[in-house]
Amino acid sequence: MKREQIAKTLEQGRKRGIALLLGENDSNWPWEAAAQERLVEEIRADADNRLLAPDPELTFALFRIFRDTGERLAYEKVYFERRKRLNAFVIMALQEPNSKKYETAALDTIWSICNEFTWCLPAHFNERAEQPDIDLFAAETGFALSEVLLLLGERLPRLLRERIEAEIENRIFRPFLEQGPYGWETAEHNWSAVCAGSIGAAALHLMNDMSRLSELLERVLRSLDYYLDGFGEDGACAEGYSYWQYGFGYFVYFAQLLKEATDHRIDLFDSRKVKEIALFQQKSFTSGNAVVNFSDAPNESGIFLGLSCCLHKEYHEVIVPDASLRATYSSDHCGRWAPAIRNLIWAKEEWLVSNGNKTLWQSESYYLPDVAWLLSRHVSTNGGSYSFAAKGGHNAEPHNHNDVGHFLLHADGQAYLADLGSGKYTADYFGKGRYDIWCNGSQGHSVPIVNGSHQQAGQPFRAKVVEADSAVREDLLELEISGAYGLSQLERLGRRFHWQKEELPCLSLIDRFSFLSGEGDKALHNFPITERFISYLAPELTKAGELLLNGIRRLRIIYDHQLWSPLVTARSDIDHYGSERYWYTIDFEASATSEVPFIAAFTFQFDS
To answer: Are 416 and 555 in contact (CB under 8 A)?
Structure first.
């Protein structure tokens, strides 16, 4: 949308103030919804606990750790602790306006954040940049402080109100308008939504100059167009569910404010693609809080009920999940203000009480053609919830893992064949060593190893979809994935998944390998092939040709024992939060054969 159009729309009337955020609920503070008592108690307990500890300092020694070692967690732990203190103290100061302990702690925390050398993380900070950095967390901080100013209002001393406005002006608005553009403005992933959405939201709250606001919103809306360009028409988030919750969440937070500010004249929700993106959440869960965690996503996630209720209000097809699945207040390790406050004020009372229904997600199957994902949930009459997911795609997706042809199997929310998800973020994690890390390279996924080679990174290394079909009783996905390996001798690698949704479901996997000799003729199979599968469960060899994964339920892996020799190796790596996690590679190594093409067949049968 052009600047002139934005200005004209704003001239027709612009809403300001607390009603932008609270809308029809603006008379409900302190928050009195009985069903929110549990969340308020979580926030109160968090605030009281933080009152016992001093405000942690972001020292120079912490700041330089990333530059010197590539490690991020030491600085970020303190940085996020300070944001968590801001959230808890401000919300409780609003909730209990007569309690000076929360208000005093809130004011001290605001002052402390205003004093920070930079609002950026060291991992995103460029010492040589000619313009002040605006990263995800700088933009989020500006957004948070703008709403803190809005909500606390005259309870903030004039000096602190002016300090907040000055810091946001100098760290966010002026650099964005006068010293951009920033690289993230054209990013087709979460950065454009979070940064632009946060800046736009803060401007809607604070900017008085209509011409300047129109100029800023033009840039913001252009950046959000790039964000939406990162999605296909199927609405799938290739970055993984957690980045849907993050990036799309900030898109929604800004879109709601803009819609209210313009009295619905600018409505970013009025888009078929945005609606499809909104529906992605209910396709991403297998059972309970368990997630199809392709890319950099955790294997479990709580639901942001505030975000879900907002999207349900816009699109009735969006399911508001059962309240038992909501994210607890403390579950966001980054301490983000925007979802924390909206989980309190946007969640409608009728959705806040669990209905006690054990079937929290119904049987459904989806094929998402733009990312080539097949997602299938099957709820059996025995009460079991079984899920299968597989992906094609390519190896240059945002937050990419080299995982073309990878798949997972869940039962009752437990992973039998797993995706490791995200690892510990370091300089190497986003640098040259990314695919040497287990959870990112194909060596840490359930895909073949051909002639000792793993998949390669880059957009040319991709799958071709041969067939995809989703039906009530069975799902089918057939891929051609030889292109993911970049091996001149590998003529074809066809991977076929057949998911049969019986009372006890069964997955059939068939891989067909064709090789070329040095002269380009079809060759006999003489390259070593390893079929690798990833599991958190220790396999048991029950008999020749069968391994058992024993969890809440039982999964049998059936194979030709005359062709394959299984090798189970216990492994570990470091998860996203810095803790060691333990898992297994289950490798089947093929004996020499003259069969052309070489066919690998495995059956994964749930028997409970």
So the answer is: yes
Which token pair is 290? 């368990």
Beta strand pairing status for 529-535 and 448-450? antiparallel
Contacts of 433 (CB under 8 A, 6+ apart): none
Tokens of 60: 């120079």
* Alpha-helix runs per DSSP H in 96-230: 100-114, 136-152, 158-168, 174-178, 190-206, 210-229
Residue with tokens 């920033």: 182
pLDDT tens by residue, 387-400: 999 999 999 999 99
- Bigger pLDDT: 165 or 594? 165
Is 50 exceeded by the pLDDT of residue 17?
yes
> Which of 127, 105, 104 shows the shortest CA–CA distance to 117?
127
Give Cα separations from 98 to 41, 42, 129, 155 (angstroms): 17, 19, 45, 11
Residues 302, 307, 309, CA angle at the centre, nearest 5°? Answer: 105
Q: Find the helix or strand (DSSP H, E) in which 88 lies.
A: helix 73-95
How much of the chain is in helix, strand and coil states, percent to nearest 5?
40, 25, 40
For residues 586 and 604, give the distance between their C-alpha atoms in angstroms, rounded to a whole number: 13
What pLDDT does residue 36 have?
78
Q: Are the C-beta atoms of residues 18 and 26 closer than 8 Å to each other?
A: yes
pLDDT of residue 590: 86
Task: Evaluate whether 606 touches 506 at the Cβ level (below 8 Å).
Answer: yes
End-to-end Cα distance, the chain: 56
What residues contact 574, with CB distance under 8 A and at least 6 apart?
423, 424, 580, 581
* CB neighbours of residue 518 within 10 Å: 8
> What is the DSSP secondary-structure string of 303-321?
B-HHHHHHHHHH-TTS---
Is residue 555 a contact partner of residue 604, using CB atoms and an 8 Å limit?
yes
For 300-334, what is each residue's pLDDT tens digit? 999 999 999 999 999 999 999 999 999 999 999 99
Residue 299 has pLDDT above 80, yes or no: yes
Which residues contact residue 282 at a Cβ distance below 8 angstroms, ignoring those fewer than 6 apart? 318, 319, 321, 361
HSE of 570, CA atoms in CB hemisphere, 13 A: 6
Mean pLDDT of 455-472: 97
pLDDT at 411: 97
* Nearest by Cα to 453 from 515, 534, 372: 515
